TrEMBL record:
Family: Belongs to the triosephosphate isomerase family.
Pathway note: Carbohydrate biosynthesis; gluconeogenesis; Carbohydrate degradation; glycolysis; D-glyceraldehyde 3-phosphate from glycerone phosphate: step 1/1
EC number: 5.3.1.1
Biological source species: Candidatus Allofournierella pullistercoris
Matches recorded under Pfam families: TIM (PF00121)
GO cellular component, as recorded: cytosol
CDD domains (alphabetical): TIM
Active site: 97, 169
Gene3D superfamilies assigned to the protein according to its UniProt record, in alphabetical order: Aldolase class I
Binding site for substrate: 12-14, 175, 215, 236-237
Annotated protein name in UniProt: Triosephosphate isomerase
Catalytically driven reaction(s): D-glyceraldehyde 3-phosphate = dihydroxyacetone phosphate
Localization, UniProt: Cytoplasm
Main location: cytoplasm
């Protein structure tokens, strides 16, 4: 599909890979994705970020974190600020991942605060939204995803929007091996773009990268990425193996 949007394939390693293992994976990834015609991002655990930044310098692999706190500094034991990530050389951060929402009491409001803090510090943000199975069965997917997206972007200016990627991740498809059909992915990604048009104008909405995430793998990537409003993928399980991740990158490069 002809458009000027950047295709972005991002790996979300979640709580996997020691720094030693990260080095091995990155060593295997560097040659495997060197010819990519899309943007390649790896979101590693905090502990592997410095090493990942170091190892990927001069390559086409960009590094992201999986979370960021919204305050600049202070008494927030266990948290990491946007400035700390920027100082390390980190370029991207994920906000609002469903696992943060589900297990760590993340709300639409805190997702918004983290997104704003990250953008204000100069990070690019992958904002995750998506419905769970119950919500899909209740037929509220579109309303819910619109609401999540709208709240996540409160206060984000039109000038900041180029630094934002929206990742549509149906919770029922994450880590379950159950992928949304390409039509389901397109339907929701299209509705996110429509909302972006209402909020920022149609021309701006057409420039925003919208990813699909949820059991994307080498076998289904091409079909999902072939949909007009699916501009990339956020990949969990399949990002932990260099060959699988590289196959998805190759599918996105076609
Ligand atoms: P999955 O995870 O590819 O393992 O389903 C995707 C994600 O949670 O970002």
């Amino acid at each position: 599909m002809e458009n000027n949007r950047k295709t972005i394939i991002a790996g979300n390693w979640k709580m996997n890979k020691t720094t030693t293992e990260a080095v091995e994976l990155i060593d295997a990834l560097i040659p495997a994705v060197a010819d990519a015609q899309c943007e390649v991002v790896i979101c590693t655990p905090f502990t592997a970020l410095a090493t990942a930044v170091e190892k990927t310098r001069g390559t086409n692999i960009h590094v992201g974190a999986q979370n960021v706190h919204f305050e600049q500094s202070g008494a927030f034991t266990g948290e990491i600020s946007a400035e700390m990530l920027v100082d390390l050389g980190v370029e991207y951060v994920i906000t609002g991942h469903s696992e943060r929402r589900q297990y760590f009491a993340e709300t639409d409001e805190t997702v918004n605060k983290r997104t704003l803090a990250a953008l204000n510090a100069g990070l690019k943000v992958l904002v995750c939204v998506g419905e769970n199975l119950e919500q899909r069965e209740q037929g509220v997917t579109e309303e819910l995803v619109r609401l999540q997206t709208k709240i996540a972007l409160q206060g984000v200016t039109k000038e900041q929007l180029p630094q934002v990627v929206i990742a549509y991740e149906p919770v029922w498809a994450i880590g379950t091996g159950k992928t949304a059909t390409s039509d389901q992915a397109q339907e929701v990604c299209g509705c996110i773009r429509q909302l972006l048009g209402e909020l920022y104008g149609e021309d701006t909405a057409q420039t925003v990268t919208i990813q699909y995430g949820g059991s994307m793998n080498p076998a289904n990537a091409e079909e999902l990425l072939g949909k007009p409003d699916v501009d990339g993928g956020l990949i969990g399980g399949a990002s932990l193996k260099a060959d699988a991740f590289a196959s998805i990158v190759a599918a996105a490069s076609r």
